[in-house]
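User: Hi! I have a protein structure encoded as tokens and I'd like to know what sequence might fold into it. I'm fairly new to this, so please keep things simple.
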């Protein structure tokens, strides 16, 4: 029997479980033993990993009465979540969270999946009162190492400079808006420490030199990449994830770019570029970029 069946059953029954829990709390007369509360990013990571382990507990981190889905290929609410799970392979999905971050009510994670095939994903969750109420993501196929030998997920993971979170978000938003949205490529060098720049995009090598070479090749082959709008920037310390909308090779596209900032400069970059489904194939009406 698929281990995921238990998760689906729990998702269906979670409202009843919550109701039972409330009844217990209402009739409790003795002090309950306190336990350490998980952070929101720990809850988000646990939910993602449960796709592989079959652990039932993380399903309880989702608000059963309010779960807004922004993956346009998935139906809204727990019913949509359950429908995906019904199509899991016999041995379940695979999920390894490489990086996990928290910014206010939002968490964002960088994960290696085997989810209907090997993939890399960025997942964003929004929490209310400790419960997940909203989800966005971008997914891409797993690819070989890039020209500099980097994978889509290797590199730095340590979070530091927490006091610089807001300043680093400003740096990333300014870079994206100035250079990629408004075409100020002559100002690009202002955001980097010379050619010291680690790149994880599967088609681009390290440094501004690697980026320049890739852009030349794209232009030679008639491939265009256009950023129209930066919708959201989330950060924790030296890491910032930006969600943008635009076009790649003429197709409506969602860009998720994760940057590591060091001493006020962009030092490392990971990304996932996903073509947005045509409206006729949307399974919810929540929009890809509604934050």
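Assistant: Happy to help. Inverse folding works backwards from shape to sequence: for each of the 291 positions I chose a residue that suits the local structure. Here it is:
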């Amino acid at each position: 029997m698929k281990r995921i069946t238990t998760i689906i059953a729990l998702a269906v029954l979670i409202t009843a479980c919550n109701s039972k829990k409330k009844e217990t709390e209402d009739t409790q007369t003795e002090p309950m033993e306190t336990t350490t509360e998980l952070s929101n990013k720990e809850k988000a990571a646990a939910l993602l990993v449960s796709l592989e382990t079959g652990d039932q507990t993380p399903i309880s981190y989702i608000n059963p009465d309010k779960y807004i889905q922004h993956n346009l290929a998935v139906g809204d609410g727990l019913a949509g979540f359950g429908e995906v799970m019904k199509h899991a392979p016999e041995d379940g999905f695979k999920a390894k969270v490489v990086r996990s971050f928290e910014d206010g009510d939002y968490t964002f994670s960088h994960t290696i999946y085997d989810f209907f095939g090997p993939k890399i994903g960025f997942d964003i969750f929004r929490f209310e009162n400790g419960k997940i109420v909203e989800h966005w993501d971008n997914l891409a196929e797993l690819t070989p190492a890039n020209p500099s030998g980097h994978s889509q997920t290797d590199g730095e993971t340590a979070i530091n400079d927490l006091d610089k979170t807001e300043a680093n978000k400003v740096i990333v938003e300014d870079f994206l808006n100035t250079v990629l949205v408004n075409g100020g490529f002559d100002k690009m060098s202002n955001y980097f420490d010379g050619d010291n720049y680690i790149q994880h995009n599967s088609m681009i090598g390290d440094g501004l030199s690697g980026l320049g070479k890739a852009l030349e090749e794209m232009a030679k082959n008639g491939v265009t990449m256009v950023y129209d709008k930066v919708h959201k920037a989330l950060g924790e310390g030296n890491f910032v994830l930006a969600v943008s909308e635009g076009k790649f090779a003429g197709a409506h596209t969602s860009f998720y770019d994760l940057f590591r900032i060091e001493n006020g400069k962009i030092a490392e970059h990971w990304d996932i570029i996903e073509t947005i489904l045509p409206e006729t194939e949307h399974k919810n009406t929540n929009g890809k970029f509604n934050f």
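A useful reference point when you look it over: The CA atoms of residues 40 and 192 lie 32 Å apart. Feel free to ask if any position seems puzzling.
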